[in-house]
Amino acid sequence: MENQPISIKKSAVNYGVILGAVLALMTTLMYVLNPDLFTKWYVGIISFIIIIAMGIVSTAKAKGILGGMMNFKQGFTVYFITVALGLLISTLVGILIFNIIDPDMAANLQEKTLAMTAEMLEKFGTPQAAIDEQMAKMSEQNNFAIGSQLKSYVFSLAFMSVIGLLVALIFKTKNPNPLN
Fold first, then answer.
1. pLDDT tens readout for residues 145-175
2. How many domains are there within the chain?
3. Which segments cross the bilayer (predicted)?
4. Both ends of the chain: CA-CA distance in Å?
5. Which of 38, 102, 156, 168 falls 20 to 30 Å from 92 in CA-CA distance?
6. Rounded to an integer, what distance in angstroms lies between the CA atom of residue 103 and that of residue 20?
7. CA-to-CA distance for 90 and 76, rounded, in angstroms?
8. Is 138 within 8 Å of 114 (Cβ atoms)?
9. For residues 12 and 81, is the Cβ–Cβ distance under 8 A?
10. 3-state class of 40 per DSSP?
């Protein structure tokens, strides 16, 4: 029994590395092929779905490793390790691209994001004073700075952890023989 928690953690690490590789590949391909994809809302939705799916697959695999019996803590731990590692790898790739390889790309994307936000606010009929105020706030922030990306990592991990609690709850099983 001692080896099983180690093997589910090892499995979670493996899935986390796979998730990180997929997200890093997506980031790299977007950077190389079409950097404007970084400003598209649907890319975030696709990433979100991939992250949750990989967390679920990892949790299901762990339940299989444990012979179908998994408690809440084991389920959440596996999900968390997978997602935390995958997001960390993706964040490090983002930091590498936007702060070391091509900082000018980050500035360009920041400008495009500002323009898109102003356009969206105008479409919603937001008063010009409010738009100007929002643009001033956004122009002070650098979403691609190392600190901003690390903060985004922490907030993403916190949000994904809430989903992980639900996944662990769904995958947990009650031990039919509580004496063991």
1. 899 999 999 999 999 999 999 999 999 998 7
2. 1
3. 12-33, 39-57, 78-101, 153-171
4. 11
5. 168
6. 22
7. 21
8. yes
9. yes
10. coil
Decide if 126 is inside a domain.
no
Amino acid at 92: L
The one-letter amino acid code at 72 reads: F
Q: Which two tokens stand for residue 178?
A: 């509580």
* Residue 34 structure tokens: 């079409």
CA–CA separation, 128 and 137 (whole Å): 14
- Does 131 map to a domain? no
> Using CA atoms, how far apart are residues 168 and 14, in angstroms rounded to an integer?
19
H helices of the chain, in order, are 3-33, 41-65, 72-95, 103-123, 128-140, 146-171
Radius of gyration of the chain (CA): 20
Residue 132 lies in a domain: no
* pLDDT digit string, tens, across residues 10-31: 999 999 999 999 999 999 999 9
Q: What is the pTM of this model?
A: 0.86
Show the tokens assigned to 170. Answer: 């769904």
Q: Is 83 in contact with 55 (CB distance < 8 Å)?
A: yes
pLDDT tens, position by position, 35-86: 989 988 899 999 999 999 999 999 999 999 999 999 999 999 999 999 999 9
Three-state DSSP state, 35? helix
CA-CA distance, 113 to 38, in Å (whole number)?
A: 9
Which tokens go with 130?
A: 């409010």
